[in-house]
Amino acid sequence: MSAPERPPINKDEVEDLRRLFFDKYSADEGGGIFDDRDIDRVRADDNYLHGFLMIGKMNKQDALTKMVDALKWRKEWGINDLTFEAFPDWALQIGGLYSRGKDKVGRKILWFKVATHKKDASRAEWVKKYIAFWLDKLHKENPGENIVLVEDMTNAGLANMDMDVIGFLIKCLELRFPAVVGMLYVYNMPWYLNAIWKIIEKLLSEESKAHIKFLFGDDVQQYVSKDHLPPHMGGTDTYQWVWPPPDNEDSVEEISILQNTMDETFEQASDNLSSPAPSDSPPDSPPGGSGDIVNGTEAVTNGDVRIPPKNQVVKKVTFSPDTEDNENRDHSMLSTSSTLSRLKQRKSAKKSKIKDVARGPLLTIRPGEQLTFNPAPVRDEDPSTVDPSLVLSLTNTTDKKIAYKVKTTTPDRYRVRPSAGPINPGASINITITLLSGNQEEVAKDKFLILSTELGEVIRTPAELSNYWRRVPRGNIVEHRMRCQYNLPSIQEMEFKWIREHMLAMSKNLETVKAHSASLESRTYRLQMILRIQLFCIFVLTLVCGMWLMGWIDVDGVEGVCPAGQQSNAAEHYTKVFNHTPV
């Protein structure tokens, strides 16, 4: 089954849709309900409008309704303002969604690693925005072209199936980013998720179902070559998403800056070469400085500098030294140089290591610049109650007593013990800082401030220390600022922790069931004993009464048990009922 071909753009239909939109919203460009950048896109991008015509089945009124809804959603979610820096570190570091390689048709591949996602209501909004960010990014980078979404379900289970996120993804593919995804390949879906797929299938339109294909094992190699597939799909691409990018790799932003600068610079240089210099000298040998160009402008291709082969002839081209063109060329070269210098500074800043020790006039602080919280190890007790913590060491390097105090920008997120106190000359103190559970996402925005000052009087109580800090002149206080970082656990650690948490919960539930079962068993046993006693009593009573009525009991020998008159009455009653005389 192959996906339907993308119909060609009908310029007249697109123009009619554009006119309908601006006839309705031309008064105030949408009255603030649309992003101005999206309005410009509607005005200039035929492919974008053609996508809405496709999902509207070429009905312009339906296409207009869907387009207006999509534009309102883009403004509400701030899609045009999303960048990598807008997302928390965990969303970037987990590697659950990224673009890499192309399929055999030449379409870019967006990889979705389902096993990396765990259902978490507190993170759902960020996950949705990250999906929208990547779809919008690839849509803008490849106008008029489809992409391929590979939903890799290797090692995925029920815990990874978030129906809320799946529903959002379906809505994005069908309505928010029309005709962007040409094919959705679902790879290695476990058999026990078929029931969930039946639910998802009901949410899809017939047109969308035609763009979905389920692949297993080496089937994916029919659509994507091995050099663009990871090893577990039989490929040779060992790429792993890493954030932030390694120091030896330029970021996308740096490459873009350098590419644009080089394009502008060499375009100006090419213009200078093509225009004659104002000089009285012959055209083939004008006076002035000289520069090397290989075969005219062939050494520059798409903004990239190509080094000529050794056997290639290098032509000499000279420029007039005092012309305005040379000034522009020098300025553009200087701009390129400054850009390269700025990129080098950014890369060198990345490579700078975090100091382990900060030595101040009063204290030596370890760690020196950054408080790094690592996930707490999983223990036998409830993992949710184990919070990440670290130790901050302060050493008094003076011959006087020092008072210290620890502050943070987010006191509700941390527990600091002890947060203030004195330090004797040459002594050290260890401060335990605990990151409270449920707040790891915003740790990178937090800061800590270590205050220290000479202690000029005897302090006996925390109240006296607090009063002392109020009286200390600000000029006598030494401040040291520290940033925070939370290292996300690896996928294996997260899965192991998730398994341990669920195993612990199951163990607790099993203990509860056992307790209820033991209680029920005890109650059942007591009821059985009572029932048995009651049945025994009834049996004995019935037996005695029967024997008495039959006259098998010799009551003459038992005085006071059954008087003679009552025995005679009983015998007469028996005779009347059964019409015979007992033996």
Architecture overview:
The protein is an alpha+beta fold and 583 residues long. The longest helix is centred in the C-terminal third of the chain and has 60 residues, at 491-550. Residues 248-258, 273-335, 380-384 and 558-562 have low confidence and may be disordered. A hairpin with a 2-residue loop joins strand 7 and strand 8 (304-305). It has a 5-stranded mixed sheet, with helices on one face. It has helices spanning 11-25, 36-44, 46-55, 60-77, 89-93, 124-141, 163-176, 194-202, 206-209, 252-274, 324-351, 462-471, 491-550, 564-578; strands at residues 97-102, 108-113, 147-152, 181-187, 212-215, 289-293, 300-301, 304-305, 315-319, 358-359, 363-366, 370-373, 389-396, 402-408, 414-417, 420-423, 428-435, 447-454, 478-486.
